[in-house]
Amino acid sequence: MLKPILLVEDNPHDLELTLIALEKSQLANEVIIARDGAEALDYLMCRGEHAARQAGNPTVVLLDLKLPKVDGLEVLREIRSTAHLKSIPVVMLTSSKEEQDLLRSYELGVNAYVVKPVDFEEFVRAIADLGIFWAVLNEPPPGSHRYVKPY
Asked: Is a pLDDT exceeding 70 seen at residue 57?
């Protein structure tokens, strides 16, 4: 069974572009969408409206930095401080080029920090590359499932 990708994005335009880009990469992974940090944490912790979801962690979390309710840095902090979540790869996907955001993200244990390109084609290419790397090429922690493309 393929593990889903958790996409945490509040901007409707960026959300739509990211979904288009992931679709173009032809990944078979389901994409779970959280529109704020609190919803992302509820999904990861299997609580609230996600209490009955199937157990298991996503293959990767694509996390925006500037989010309503709970910001991306706090979500990252919670992921890294929770035993059953801390091995999930987290990619900060943001428009922020602020050095302090970059440094803080890495201090908290982000796996990658990607600044969203402004150009549509570059954005699509960047997201497709991220999806393929984390869902197909990356070797997940033991006990995780990995997508193997059929020939």
From this structure: yes
